[in-house]
Amino acid sequence: SIMLNSITDGLLCCLMGKTTNAVGPLDSVESSNGYSFMEVKPGRILRVRHSMPNRPAPEGPEETQPGGPERGTVHCKRKITVYRNGQLVIENLGDAVRSEILHCQNSSGEPNSTVELELSDLAGQAPAQGPAGTPGCGTREAAAAPGKRRKRKPKKIINIDCKKQITSCKGTHSDVVLFFIHGVGGSLDIWKEQLDFFTKLGYEVVAPDLAGHGCSSAPQIAAAYTFYALAEDIRAVFKRYAKKRNILIGHSYGVSFCTFLAHEYPDLVHKVIMINGGGPTALEPSLCSIFNMPTCVLHCLSPCLAWSFLKAGFARQGAKEKQLLKEGNAFNVSSFVLRAMMSGQYWPEGDEVYHAELAVPVLLVHGMHDKFVPVEEDQRMAEILLIAFLKVIDEGSHMVMMECPETVNTLLHEFILWEPETPAGDGQG
């Protein structure tokens, strides 16, 4: 009887959008509205929204589109040097630099550039940046290395040398899939406006609920919510639905899983969109955090936490925002899961070097009123990444995709359709 109720609750959750965290051990239950349950490992079940459009006739293979097979091809070449004193030096040696690919307004126009940074001392730096809403450009030139450098012994040298073909991804292309990954406390429901928008345009979209969130199963063991456990869940979802050109869209903590997949599958991840994801630093749980309190205490504080999230996560705190918070499941998770999620954010590999190794183009979206993620952190991310746009939305906060859906949808769509105007000689050697 208990098992039957569990399965019934899970199905109702899937069909009606309820959030119960009670899902029976189902192999795969698909409903007519695109929701299904996916068992990523025995007893660990995620709710997934998968919308597959009905295309009349797929457009021809991507390679035959106007511009030829070489269009959008860029030479990504950079040298990453880590010194024993903790200094990180990035030298861009190929075609894929901001000044050429993104046609920045404030770039120096130099073909190659060097950025010199302290690995753990970047937060206070505000790199040179164009006006809000333009690519975060010119940062490497602003931090150019001095002409003469004293000889130092490097701890590690990493050379990136590859060619990337960056192409426009249209809703009519059958080899394109958009993956949406939410952050702590949320659910796939936070993406409602984006999922509806891109589905109507003909895109295939996939959005999971993380374990313990939305309608996914909620194991009562803290180890189920470590970064690595969640990353393997997302890997399973990705491997099940991925096609040739996959675009990852992450919000907050969800950005870390996008970065992980982009690093693991460089040939499958075509573009990445990071919404209020923060700086390119290794994840480490805070020792002095309210989330280290016992679960029972957190449970008593949950109304205060919800109000604090509303104030910090939304630019305004009116009736509309309260409705979004409640109906959109922006912050609706058990105290146990919340505590385990916060203490499980340990990912030492995801440091500045890890991010600097990415050759995938990235769109960074930042809500200016975000009290969780300062704009300097996203500027810092733009500085480290090889190919990056930084777009700042003045009227948005941490939940910018819920607050300003039209603006966010337009930005995302423009980036998904974007491909570099490869100047003559680019991609040649």
Automatic annotation (TrEMBL):
Keywords: Hydrolase. It comes from the Eukaryota. InterPro entries: AB_hydrolase_1, AB_hydrolase_fold, Epox_hydrolase-like. Belongs to the AB hydrolase superfamily. One of its GO terms (biological process) is negative regulation of NLRP3 inflammasome complex assembly. Pfam families: Abhydrolase_1. Residues 125-146 have a biased composition (Low complexity). The gene is Abhd8. Residues 51-73, 125-152 are annotated as: Disordered. GO terms for cellular component: mitochondrion. GO terms for molecular function: carboxylic ester hydrolase activity; lysophosphatidic acid acyltransferase activity. Residues 177-279 form the AB hydrolase-1 domain. This is Protein ABHD8. Transmembrane segments: none annotated.
